[in-house]
Amino acid sequence: MRYRVNILRVWMGQVVLGMLLLFSSDVLCPDSAGAVNWLMLQGVEKKTAPIRFGGFLLLDYINAGGGDLPAGPFTGTALNSGVVTPNQRSSAEFNLRKLQLGIRGALTDKINYSLKTISGNNSATRIDDHNRIRLIESSVTLNHLPGARIRIGMFKTPAVEESLGFVPPCNYINLTNMTNMLMQERFFDADGSDPTDVNAPGVAGCCRDIGIMVFNTFNFKPWELTYAAMLANGHGLNLQDDNDNPDLYLYFAAERLRGVGKGTRRQGWKLFAWYQEGQRSLDVGISHTERVFRRCRYGMGTTLLWQNLRIESEIIKANGMIFAGTDGGAVPGTVSNNGLSVSGYNVLPEDQALGWYFDMGCEIFADFWLNARYDRLDLGTETNSEREFKTLSLGVLYRFSSTLRGKLTYEIRSGEAPHQNDSSVSNRILDDLPNRFSAQLLYLF
Predict the structure, then answer these.
(1) pTM of the complete model
(2) Dihedral of CA 155/157/158/164: which sign?
(3) What is the pLDDT of residue 18?
C-alpha cells in the first residue's frame, strides 16, 4: 500500500511539473504549446483527395542478450527474455519488422475512411511459424451529428498513450513492460496449467478491436477536450468474437493548446484517463474446464511537449486475465530436464497487476533527441508469486528527413520476486535478466 501511495504522489508531482513548465512558457516564449490528439488524428480526415496512399517500412536489429536458465526444471536451456520475438530462436537478429500499406481519404465532407494492412516478422503477422499479410485497420467515420462522430470497424482502441502513438512516431523501439504485458493482449485457449501443453496464443491484439466508437473534440481556447465511448468484440485483430459479451472502452482527455506544431509534433500539455472492461473465456486446470473471467484495465497519464522538452508518464491498474510469461522463464516448447513437461504460456485469470513509467526526452539540436524512460511492472500482486520488473531505457532518435528516421535503444533490465527469498528459483532467474540493445530504421512513404 505504501508503494502505491508513493507512486500516486510521484505521478501528481509530474503533473505539477508539467503545469509549471507550461504556464511559465507563456512568459518565456511568445509562441504557444499543445499535445497530440490521437483520436482525431487517426479517425478523422480533412476533406482532401478521396484516396491517399501511404505506409512505412521498418527494419531493425535486436540483441536480446541471450543467456541460459540458472535454476529450475529447465536449467541450462535458453532464457526466454534473452531471445528475439516473435521467432524466439536467436538472441540477436536482423528483421524486416513491419511493412505497412494503407489508403485513407474523405469520400464526402461527412464521411471518411481508413484501410491498412501489415506484413513482416512481428506478433501480428507471425502465425503457425509463418508470416502472413494481416488487416490491422478498416474503418469508416461518420461526421453527421453535432458533437458526436461515429467510427465503425477495426482500429486502435481509446486507451494508453503509448499504444496510440506506437510506430510511427514513437520514441523507442520496444514497448514498456506495462503496455506489453497488460495492454498488448494475447488470446489463449487455456491458463497454462497443463504441463504438456505449450498453450501458444493466437494473433496479438495490437491494442486494436472491432466495434463502434462515438467520439469528438471541443475547443475552449486554450483548452481542447476530447471524449470517446466504444463497444467492441474484445477479440483484437480476430474477425470473429469468442463470446456474446462486448467490451466497453471509455476515454477523456484535456489538452492545453498553444498553436505551435501540428499533427504528431503539436506542442502542449495533456491530461487523460481511460477505462476498459470485458469478459474472456478460458480453459482452466488440468481438466481444461471452460470458465468466463472479467478483464478490466484503467489508467491515467500526462504528456508535455514544449519546445525541445518532452515529458510523458502513465500508470495502469489491471484486474483479471494477467499474462504471466512462460513456465520457468524458458522458451515456449522447451522440454524440461526430466522430460515430463514443456514450457508453456501462462495466464493468471483472477490476479492483478500495476504498471507505470516516466519518460523524458530532449532535442539537443535540430531533429536529434536524447531519451530516457524508466518503467516498472508489478505482476501478480495478490499472491506470493508476485514479480517486479524494472527497465531503464536509454535512446537516441534522429530524423534524417521528413520520411527517414533512425533510433537506438539500450534497455537495462532487472527483476525480483519480493515475497520469496534471494536463493529461490524465481529470484535466481530474475537476477540473470539480460540487457537488450536495439537499432531501427524507419522509412515513411
Answers:
(1) 0.90
(2) negative
(3) 45
